[in-house]
Amino acid sequence: MRVAIIHYWLLGMRGGEKVVEALCRLFPDADIFTLFYRPEGVSPLIRSHKVTASFLNPARKMYQSLLPLMPMALEQFDLRDYDLVISSESGPAKGVLTKGTARHICYCHTPMRYLWDLYPDYVRDFTRSNLRRLTMIPFAHYLRMWDYAAAARVDEFIANSENTRRRIRKAYRREAGVIHPPVAVDTFFHRPAEDYFLIVSELAAYKRLDYAVRSFTHTGRRLRIVGDGPEFKRLRKMAGSSVEFCGRLPDHQLRNLYARCRALVLPGEEDFGITMVESLASGKPVVAFGRGGALEIVPDRGGILYDRCTEESLGEALRKFDSLETGFAPLSLRTYAERFSEGRFEEQFSALISAPGTGNRRLAAV
User: Fold this and answer.
1) How far apart are CA 224 and CA 309, in angstroms?
2) By the 8 A CB rule, do 80 and 91 touch?
3) 209: three-class secondary structure by DSSP
């Protein structure tokens, strides 16, 4: 059986690329196809596979501006020789063309946010002029129709969470099974807490770090933020001296920050939320906006969930955390995190592949 792995782009190592790594371990002879490829940005395991990039790759530095051309680029991949095609999707990836006898499984992190549930936010926040907005609207309409049609090319959908499963049904009218993404829980460790809270996130508007930065600035609580992105300058401008921006960090430094923080703060809605699992694996509780993946990940005695994306709601949750902090049991949190391990992902995905492909009726039971 020849296997092809399709991933939207391979420019760095985040949650989606960790899934690709797990698939590479399951299928050591698989070939990888991607729209954009920066070898130095990915792990040695991914680089050890044959990676084919699309004709758009020379322009990868401006990849976000090339969205209208991505469907055509995906359809140019020649997958005639492959029996199993696994697409890893949160940007366009499932739109590849496969032979009639191939089995196409799409592991979906989320339907494309900027075309579906977050489309109004993207129109408002990312198109600063009327001309750009008028240009974006017809492109988005075309891409939404293509994305819906591309979903029909998939034989079986797998969602990374119940939250994403609901979004798949809403966007594509398709059912999906759920297999949580792999987290290297055994590599995290616990240390006594120091006086700071932690955010690990891309600095993007939809992540809603703005009100969290304002809250920690106004209260003087210490906050460390790991990550980078287009919102850095705006967030840095509103931050006070108690808020520290750490940028992107190597894994060993990030694990040390997890180990010594009081708690992880997650101010926006996540499709799944690997950072919450990493915090629990470090024996640290989570203070999170209670929507999306937080409802599946944070156990009853694993943190504080609040119901509104406001400074007041977050401030109230942090005060509640202060009163309950000594009651969180690090060993229990670490044990709970093991249900999201790499081994569990590989076990569940192997079971899916070994069973005959019968579409979404069977996947509902995975």
Assistant:
1) 19
2) no
3) helix
- Domain 185-339 grouped into CATH 3.90.190.20: no
Please give the single-letter amino acid code of residue 361. R
d(CA 109, CA 292): 12
**Domains in the chain: boundaries:** 3-182+341-363, 185-339
pLDDT tens, per residue, the chain with 366 residues: 899 999 999 998 888 899 999 999 999 999 999 999 999 999 999 999 999 999 999 999 888 778 889 999 999 999 999 999 999 998 789 999 999 999 999 999 989 876 777 666 666 655 555 666 666 777 777 888 888 999 999 999 999 999 999 999 999 999 999 999 999 999 999 999 999 999 999 998 889 999 999 999 999 999 999 999 989 999 999 999 999 999 999 999 999 999 999 999 999 999 899 999 999 999 999 999 999 999 999 999 999 999 999 999 999 999 999 999 999 999 999 999 999 999 999 999 999 998 866 554 434 433
Number of CB atoms found within 10 A of residue 353's CB: 15
Q: In sequence order, which residues have a C-beta less than 8 Å from that of residue 6 and are 6 or more positions away?
A: 32, 33, 34, 74, 77, 85, 86, 87, 88, 93, 94, 96
| C-beta separation of 201 from 223 below 8 A | no
**Residues 6 or more apart from 99 whose CB is under 8 A from it?**
79, 80, 82
Q: What are phi and psi of 39, to 5 degrees?
A: -55, -40
Residue with tokens 């501006």: 65
Three-state DSSP at 81 gives coil
The verdict on domain 3-182+341-363 having CATH code 3.40.50 is: yes
pTM: 0.86
